Amino acid sequence: MSFVGELHRRNVVRMGIAYTVTAWLLLQVTDVVMQNIEAPPWVMQALLYLLVVGLVPTLLFAWVFELTPEGIKRESEIANGTSVVHQTRRKLDTLIILVLVAAVAYLFWNGKRPNESPPDESTAIESVKAEDDSPGMARLREQLAAADKSNTSSTTNDVASKSVAVLPFVNLSSDPEQEYFSDGVSEELLNVLAQIPALRVAARTSSFQFKGDNRDISEIAEVLKVNHVLEGSVRKAGTRLRITAQLIEAQSGYHLWSKTYDRELEDVFAIQDEISLAIAEALKAELALNDDGRALLSRETANTPAYEAYLKGRGLINQRGNQAITAGVRELERSVRLDANFAPARAQLAIGIALLQSSAGAYGDLSADEVKQRAGEQIAAAAALDDDFAELWAARSIMAAVQNDAERALEYAESALAIRPNYADALTWRVNALGDLGRYAESFAAREELLDLDPLSVVGRLNAVTTLRFTEPERATIVAKSLAAQSPWASHLALARVYVAQGEVDLALEQFLLAYAADASDLFSNLLLSFLYSELGLIDEGLRVAREAQPWVWLFAGQFDKAEGSLREALALNPGDLELRSGLGSALYYQGRYQEAVAIWQTTLVPSVFGEIVFSWGGNLPTAQFVYSLRQLGEYEAAEPYLSALDAHESASGELIQNNAGWQWGQGLIAALHNDRKGAIAELQLSVFNGMRDPTQLREPILSGLFDEPAMQVMRETVATRNAQNREKALTLICKNNPVPDSWRPLDATCAGF
Length: 754
Known about the structure:
By secondary structure, the protein is an alpha/beta fold. 65% of the residues lie in helices and 7% in strands. It contains 33 helices and ten strands. Strands 3, 4, 5, 6, 7 and 8 form a six-stranded mixed sheet that branches. A hairpin with a 2-residue loop joins β1 and β2. α19 (473-482) runs antiparallel to α20, α20 (488-502) runs antiparallel to α21 and α31 runs parallel beside α32 (710-736). The longest helix is centred in the first third of the chain and has 34 residues, at 3-36. It is globular and about 105 Å long. The chain starts with a helix and ends with a helix.
């Protein structure tokens, strides 16, 4: 090799060094810039890819070509004595030195940069201390301190806990029919791992959202709030199955454990169970989990078509909304027809049927008696096959809930969770049952547990908005918007409820109409849309939304004789519905027919943690009206236990739900029942200040002793002005800026002259 040739090759090495150092510096500077402009992660990933790929052609180019005074030439074409390789060497040396100096300068500057992270909670608390020592600020400091303590505890527990998400196993077979089997492996793993007390397992409804998603493992783990991810694949070749599984530490991306299982394809479900148990046992050892000596159990599943229909049906039901639930019920009925001995399908079918009951908290048009019969048959059949599995207890829980037995609903939900702690349905019904029992602090804590275990659950987030819209409105808005990717209908419904709570009536109406366009058959959202139209005085529009809403529209409109007739017609078709009976009691009450109202309400009493409480679509209002009616009939002694129970219930809810117009109005009614005129006026003024919009609330008979108070007249005028403004906004929306003209058009009379 010639001396010049040797120098040329050394220059190639110099070129590689210069390229590498320059690329590193470019990446560092670009990273800072990208963070400041909040560029998406793929920008940095693309730049890194280009720089890595570009190194090889750069070195090849430097090897083959050389820079000469006449331009770039191939090295082989340069005549002896004309090479400028020594000049190129000096230029490369200079370039390397300059880039290294720039790199050192960057490192020095980066090390001196101030920490721009936001102050922690303790800093915020100290700031509050320094600024104000008023009683209000003292209360705020207490809340901040409690939040700081809670956050610290939560962070510690999250780091120390063992948690895992099981992602859907990838089907690598050419046969798409094997998809059910790969899903089944993941399903069984979830069920088996959830039996380990020391391991927190993300719920299926959330982890299965990442099916076919190629995003980074650490990002998935962050969303699912876990520190480990289990993923795998299934491949079928002839009569052979190969299943591969691997456990990944989320933060580092390190593969802690992996194994491949090869089996003959004889009984696919037996293989599924065997491998699920084997993987679970391996993970117990790998993560040093203490399982208290329990034997992990797997359950026999159905034939292939029945199992596939079961998965489809359950997935549809978890989306909520009438259309999705109805389609899910059809799939589950098909599953039962294909395999009558598949108990989970029967239990899940009962759940779907219960969700289609015609009631304010459900989604369909089935009568209470029809639900009891149809769902009851499926529960009995499932129990005959297996009397102790999670889906069965969950079905029993929702059936108790729709029959207004919150105590049993809670008991059955707890039984389901004892078998499968991450079971989203059971977690949801536990939250609801605790709330129905007035155990609000426990209900709120259970809600947070649900959102941790199943952060992508549609129903979990939809229900969470119900309370968050009053306690944490900003968070409620974020949760509501996060639903859009999975269920636009649910997102519109949740946002509408947030806007109603905030008094943004036109924004709420827009979202309700968008929900109507997405699923016009859903009773839950249709009732709420009808209520809003009624509140705005658009009675004819409210009556058009849904037949089931008509009794309540007449009641809210103050046309109590029409409400009575409509409720009696509905009860003739659905005599077991406590909501309809309670509503009929209210219609009679407003007509001054107290004896008839009391007789109706006495048939709707259900057990409560506070004693016998009137169950109703209207919360505690009929309880207060029941007390007032008994007093009007001279039965003061009989009324006292119910007033005491009402006091306890309102006090419990007030610990967590404050600055809420509805709760403060209820406090005003209770004060009036206690003959506390001053307290009643104060609570009613707070209710008006915080957005009361229903004018009938200030004409409630319980408040009749206050009607001559000047403050009441001022409040009526304030509410009337607010409602006129809201009505104007609503008419502008539906008459001029209709967001869903193909799904809903207002009556000509509604927009006449507007």
